[in-house]
Amino acid sequence: MHKKLEKQYRDRAVELGNSGDPAALPELAELTQIPVANVRRLAASAIGKLAGLADAKNAVAALQPLLQDTYSQVRQYAAKALSSYGTVAKSALSDLRDMAINPVEKEYN
Fold first, then answer.
1. CA-closest candidate to residue 38, choices 79, 66, 18
2. What is the pLDDT of residues 34-81, one digit of tens each?
3. Which of 69, 73, 57, 71 lies closest to 95, judged by CA?
4. CA 7, CA 59: separation in Å to the nearest integer?
5. Which of 3, 10, 28, 99 is the least crowded, having the fewest Cβ atoms under 10 Å away?
6. Which CATH architecture has domain 3-101?
7. Does residue 26 have a pLDDT over 80?
8. Residue 100, class by beta-carbon neighbours within 10 Å (0-12 exposed, 13-18 middle, 19+ buried)?
9. pLDDT-derived band of residue 96, with 50, 70 and 90 as boundaries?
10. Looking at residue 86, what is its pLDDT?
C-alpha cells in the first residue's frame, strides 16, 4: 500500500476515534479490514473510544475478528477495546480464553 494512503487511513482512524461520534462506527469497521496492521490497531482503539456511544453489538462484531489477527498489537488493542463494551462483548470470551491459553508469541524473560 502506498505510504500516503496508509497515513490517510491512520489519521482517519484517530480522527474518528477522537470525534465521539457514534456514526463513525461503520467507517471504523471498514478500517479494521485494511491490510495494514497499524491501521487495524488504530481502528480497534478508536472503536474502544466509542464505547457507550456507538451500537455495542456492531462494535463487538467489528472487533471480535481482530482477536485472530496475525499481529499481536492488533489483537491486544482489540481485546482492550472489547473490554470497554462490558457484557455485550461476552461473545468474545471464548476467543480471549483461547488467546490466553494458546499465545501466538513466545514469552520472553
1. 66
2. 999 999 999 999 999 999 999 999 999 999 999 999 999 999 999 999
3. 69
4. 23
5. 3
6. Alpha Horseshoe (1.25)
7. yes
8. exposed
9. low
10. 86
Long-range contact set of residues 97-100: C-beta below 8 Å, sequence gap at least 24: 99/67, 99/75
d(CA 26, CA 56): 12
Name the residue among 72, 68, 62, 55 with its Cα closest to residue 95: 68
What whole-number distance in Å separates Cα of residue 106 and Cα of residue 104? 7
Residue 106: pLDDT over 90: no
DSSP letter at 72 equals H
User: Residue 80 contacts by C-beta under 8 Å, 6 or more apart in sequence?
Assistant: 44, 45, 48
pLDDT at residue 109 tops 50 = no
- Burial of 25 per CB tally in 10 Å (0-12, 13-18, 19+): buried
Joined grid coordinates for residue 50:
466509542
- The separation between CA 96 and the C-alpha centre of its own chain, rounded to angstroms, equals 14
